[in-house]
Amino acid sequence: MEKTTNYKQFKIIEENRVIMEKHVKRLMDSIKSRNLLEYKPIQVNANMEVIDGQHRLQAAQRLGIPIYYEIQKSLVKEDMVQLNIMRAWNTEDYLHYHVKEGKEDYIRFNNFIEKNKLPLKVACNIVLGQGRENMHKFKDGKFQFNLVEHTTEMQICWFTIDMIKRENSSSSSWIMTGKFWKALLTLIRHPHFELKRWEANINKLAGRVTQKVTSKEYLKLLLDIYNWRNNTPLDIETFKDKTRDTPQKDMFE
Question: Any idea where the domains of the chain sit in the sequence?
Answer without folding.
Answer: 2-80, 90-253
